[in-house]
Amino acid sequence: MNSLALINEFLGQPPNASEHGYQIDHILEFAHWFMGALFVGWSAFFVFVLIRFHKSRHPKADHHGVRSAISTHLEFSCVLIEAVLLIGFAIPLWAKRVNEFPSGQDAILVHVVGQQFNWTFHMPGPDGQFGRREIGLVTNSNPLGIDPNDPAGKDDIVVLGELHVPVNKPVIIELSSKDVIHNFDIPHMRIAADAIPGSLIPMWFKPIKTGNYEVVCGQLCGLGHYGMKGMVVVDSPQDYQAWLKERAELAGTQNAPPATQQPAGAGGAGPTPGTIPPPGAPKNQNPVAQPEQKPAQPAPSPSGE
Ligand SMILES: [Cu+2]
Question: Model confidence at 103, in pLDDT bands (50, 70, 90)?
Answer without folding.
Answer: confident
